[in-house]
């Protein structure tokens, strides 16, 4: 609230202007030229003084906001003034200025803290705008890309032209793998982009990570799993052969000497023949096992063509109809949209879907109201997919990572290479085969075509 002194000064100035205006009017009618000139000049001066007096508050506030905009917190307004309202206003502006300065310092401290975290991060982080100018890159990304300082993505062409093309073509939410080779080593980079907006400007944030060690670990783990399964299968075949061979040898050799043929009885001869038949059968099984392994290593490159999704699923439905347990299974296919098309090797993908459909039908044999649905569709990002769904008992969580290992199987029949072959076929198509399972609710095998 304005003080009494402020009102007195304002009233005095208004009265003085009024008196000067009356003197000016009186001088015009006389006419007194000297008085007229003096009154006019004095009136203009009084009006200017009043405007300046009233606008002093506006100027202070304008100076205050200009200083804040320029991050100048040294501006201080005098607090020892005669007008109480101005004193209160100046105190308030100084107090707000202090608070804003404190907040600004806190923000600077936080920014430095976050910058230090990004610098020390074990993954590379980079942001660049639509024109390719790099606004931020931490030391890790400069080390991974073997270039410093990074100011524009065009500099990456000096590292590797392919790497530059990857960054140049980046779109929001893209995920890409790139193998970077330099004079020191080969590194496998995983790149992921995320759109962000800063000061109403669209930016791309790219996270770069060296996954070479992770790939080595996964490769070693895969070899361990494969060797474990191979050892299990081979030992299951070889153990009976070794046992039966030892029994037969005992018939024909005692105390290190060959037993005469005339001393063998009919039972020993029959047992020998039975043993040889078992050895032959186990040998055949081992040959089949090796042949299965060879087939896994010799999957041909896909012979791709445009295939109608609706016709493909219709064909699968016909082929699977002979395998359904009548009255126990609800088997159906769905293609949405109906004009959906795939660029695939029809024979290979048909075999994959038959294998997955057969597994699904086997899994729901003991399930009441068993259902198997094969659904084809397309995601919003353009990824086409085919899903094989069933409501059987599902896959235990401890086996979910094992089912794609060659020769691993939980069934009494089969070689255990069906899912491995299916996954390899999808990889040759540039896609993926993944599974998710909720026991006794839903199991979904998803073929994604990128």
UniProtKB/TrEMBL annotation:
Lineage of the species this protein comes from: Bacteria, Pseudomonadati, Bacteroidota, Flavobacteriia, Flavobacteriales
Pfam families reported in the protein's UniProt record: HATPase_c
E.C. code: 2.7.13.3
Keyword Acetylation part of the UniProt annotation: no
Domain Histidine kinase: 229-450
Keywords: ATP-binding, Kinase, Membrane, Nucleotide-binding, Transferase, Transmembrane, Transmembrane helix, Two-component regulatory system
Membrane-traversing stretches: 6-29, 36-54
Annotated protein name in UniProt: histidine kinase
Keyword 4Fe-4S carried by entry: no
GO biological process, one term: phosphorelay signal transduction system
Top enzyme category: transferase
Catalytically driven reaction(s): ATP + protein L-histidine = ADP + protein N-phospho-L-histidine
Domain of life: Bacteria
GO molecular function: ATP binding; protein histidine kinase activity
PROSITE patterns for this protein: HIS_KIN, PAS
PAS domain boundaries: 110-149
């Amino acid at each position: 609230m304005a003080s009494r002194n402020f009102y007195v000064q304002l009233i005095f100035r208004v009265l003085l202007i009024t008196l000067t205006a009356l003197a000016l009017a009186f001088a015009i009618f006389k006419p007194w030229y000297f008085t007229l000139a003096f009154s006019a000049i004095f009136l203009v001066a009084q009006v200017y003084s009043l405007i300046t007096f009233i606008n002093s508050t506006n100027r202070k506030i304008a100076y205050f906001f200009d200083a804040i905009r320029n991050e100048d917190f040294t501006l201080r307004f005098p607090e020892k003034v005669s007008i109480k309202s101005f004193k209160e206003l100046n105190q308030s502006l100084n107090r707000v200025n202090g608070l804003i300065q404190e907040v600004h310092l806190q923000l600077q401290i936080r920014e430095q803290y976050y910058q230090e975290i990004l610098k020390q991060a074990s993954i590379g982080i980079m942001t660049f705008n639509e024109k390719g100018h790099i606004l931020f890159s931490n030391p890790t990304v400069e080390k991974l890309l073997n270039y410093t300082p990074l100011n524009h993505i065009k500099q990456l062409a000096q590292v590797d032209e392919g790497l530059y093309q990857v960054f140049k073509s980046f779109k929001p939410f893209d995920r890409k793998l790139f193998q970077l080779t330099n004079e020191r080593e080969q590194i496998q980079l995983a790149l992921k982009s995320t759109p962000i907006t800063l000061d109403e400007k669209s930016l791309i944030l790219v996270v770069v990570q060296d996954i070479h060690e992770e790939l080595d670990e996964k490769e070693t783990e895969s070899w361990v799993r494969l060797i474990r399964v191979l050892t299990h299968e081979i030992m299951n075949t070889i153990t009976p052969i070794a046992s039966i061979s030892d029994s037969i040898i005992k018939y024909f050799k005692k105390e290190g000497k060959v037993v005469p043929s005339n001393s063998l009885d009919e039972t020993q001869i029959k047992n020998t023949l039975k043993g040889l038949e078992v050895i032959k059968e186990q040998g055949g099984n081992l040959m089949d096992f090796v042949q299965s392994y060879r087939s896994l290593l010799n999957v041909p490159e896909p012979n791709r063509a445009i295939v109608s999704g609706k016709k493909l699923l219709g064909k699968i439905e016909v082929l699977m109809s002979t395998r359904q347990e009548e009255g126990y299974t609800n088997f159906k296919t769905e293609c949405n949209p109906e004009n959906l098309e795939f660029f695939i090797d029809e024979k290979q993908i048909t075999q994959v879907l038959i294998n997955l459909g057969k597994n699904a039908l086997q899994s729901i044999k003991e399930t009441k109201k068993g259902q198997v649905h094969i659904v084809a569709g397309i995601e919003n990002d353009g990824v086409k997919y085919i899903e094989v769904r069933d409501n059987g008992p599902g896959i235990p969580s401890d086996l979910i990572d094992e089912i794609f290992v060659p020769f691993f199987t939980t069934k009494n029949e089969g070689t255990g290479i069906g899912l491995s072959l299916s996954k390899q076929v999808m990889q040759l198509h540039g896609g993926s085969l993944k599974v998710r399972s909720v026991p006794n609710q839903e199991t979904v095998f998803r073929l994604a075509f990128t």
